[in-house]
Amino acid sequence: MGRTYINTYEDFQIEISSLNIPVVACFYVEWCCQYKKLNNILKNTLEKNECSTIFNINILNSIKLVKEYNIISSPTVVAFYNKKVFWRESGEVSSEKINRLKFVLDNVLTTSQLH
Question: Which conformational region is residue 93 in: left (phi greater than 0), alpha (psi within -120 to 50 degrees), or beta?
Fold first, then answer.
């Protein structure tokens, strides 16, 4: 579904409430080399996935979200379904881990198991 850049807590609440598909939120700081690597992995693996959408959330601009979801490092990837966290990974997030998340998004969350 693509990628949305979230700047405020209010934007996050509006966007996540309007979706009935999983959201993969990537909390980051621009200068982080691990984020840059992860950003490419997300682009190649999930960005064109019709079963989910990606939110990029700059940690420095979204302190309320950082506190609410206990984000302590960059990057941190948090996956939500129905506004609830179901997957989380911080630090160096490998392509294998993102591929496992993609499998879950494609095969589990698209079934009636979570509806």
Answer: beta
